[in-house]
């Protein structure tokens, strides 16, 4: 039996902001230099990346040649052990990430429920596992390789997870980002809009991209090599993955007896169901913009619509088979 491959192996993370990182030892410096450290310009690059990517994915999924969503074979096996009894995810990772606040999680739950109306079998990331990847040290390694990295970094990990206690970056404008394998909620760095009490426009000059730059530097200072899957200008957390293609197949109009006889026949993709998903995503994005984005009226942002990374709980350093939750914790930073 061939080893199942996760969708990311065939769906590379392409930077659509117009910035090349090739000439930089710390790849996050590239965008910061291109934007002259200006928060408003950084926000524009993050916005350009996610809107361009959504437009590309929409065109791909609505194209008449689209063959269907990409099922995550590893998650499928973990969700349904009868497919391959005893299967264990072989991909060990080492990651620093942030957990959303309770109000943000409540907003995400509403979004997940709306998505389930058109994709009832969508695998939903559990609320207590939702995370934004601040820095991925490595992925898809064996346990021994991960342990070696942990040994190199261990003394510095407590100070790294506390970084957000003194370096507080704010994310705003939640929006669904998607492709044929998964659905995420993405954010952009704030740039002085609808400031919460006690925060100034100068505070927003330290953006999420600055945080990622800092974490990359702090980790490489320990002697490890950062081997992230992506450094694109994106701040997102995965909220759902496709594991059942039947959500997008044509209805069988035969009677029950004939349905039993035809169980082994290949099902046909229903383009209208793909279109319904895209329409639902765009509907949710309109509602998110209406209810959770800055209004310019000086009233601030509705709870759940902004997120200061490290709020309630600092960064977490986790390792192991943690793609869908799980894994083991090494350290948790101070929250505020």
UniProtKB/TrEMBL annotation:
Composition skew (Acidic residues), residue ranges = 246-267
**Residue ranges, annotated region (Disordered):** 243-270
Please indicate which superkingdom the organism of origin belongs to.
Answer: Eukaryota
The protein here is known as RNA ligase/cyclic nucleotide phosphodiesterase
Q: Which InterPro entries match?
A: Cyclic_Pdiesterase (IPR009097)
